[in-house]
Amino acid sequence: MDDRVGTDEPESSTSSIDGDAESKRTLATRGSEAVAKAKSKAEDLRARAEASRPHSAVVDIAFGSYEHDTQVAGGILAGAVAFRIFLFIVPFVFFFVVAFGLYAEVVDKPVSEATEEAGIVGLLATTITNVGDQSFWSRVTLLVISGFALISGARGMLKSLNAVHIIVWRLPRTRLQHQPRLVGGLILALLMTIVIAQLTNALQEVSFPGWVLGTAGFILIPAAIWLFASLRVFPHPPEADWRALLPGALLVGAGIELLHVFTVVWIIHSFERKSETYGAIGGSLALLLWAYITGRILAAAPVLNAVMWRRGSTLPLPPPEPPLPPPAD
Fold first, then answer.
1. What is the pLDDT of residues 24-49, one digit of tens each?
2. What span, in angstroms and rounded, lies between the C-alpha atoms of 145 and 142?
3. Helix H segments across 52-73?
4. Residue 40: CA atoms inside 13 Å, Cβ hemisphere, count?
5. By CB atoms within 10 Å of each CB, which of 20, 87, 292, 314 scores lowest?
């Protein structure tokens, strides 16, 4: 009898193990079938979309933009632009943080009151309060150093955007002209955009319909700035007029507005949470995410312009540069 009991326990244990293994195999099989079904549906949708390309301009532009973005390595270009944006934004914020701290001391007002009167709120105002720990001459020194870094970052950002346009449009390499003027214009344009954004946000407390109209109208500000830069600053084919560059400008305007909303809703709170949890590295990660999304928008704008211009023009884009020959043995 003892032998029978001893043999029953291993059998029940073995059956339990077999049941667990069978359950795992069933889940794995269902997962594989679901993935295969999703891939099949995605391939079917892609095939239908490609079949409709000759009959739909929107679908053709979407596929053409994706193909051209892949050819010019749009993701890598966006990463390069994002890095330059990061190197520009950090000294930009730091410069005006120190400047507002000095302004508050000269007019003998609290820093928070001075920033509120200037429309600087949220995260920037919190950062400004830390400047009061430094002496007056230390802040003057920081102002000079951050100003030099700001100018250098602005030049680097403009050069990277110039290189992106050259690569996307497949044009000969050209240098930016009147760089000091362009650097000043970039800084003033960003300041103007920030001020208008703050005024638009202030409308929300006064009139909700006015805030909606102001938010919709805000799209025109970055769009107009980008259209001017695309037409007068960055290289493009001589045959492409402002109408050929308008789609990219509208993309930048809508993208910057959506990014602004995304920043207010998520990135600022994420920056604060990550700064409290992980310190400066966590906050920098949130800022880098914002910079990469901005870089992706700015890099996608000339791609869209090039694709739409190629569809409506009899002059195609130049062929890609031939690859370098293999090294000699």
1. 567 677 777 777 778 888 787 778 77
2. 5
3. 57-71
4. 6
5. 314
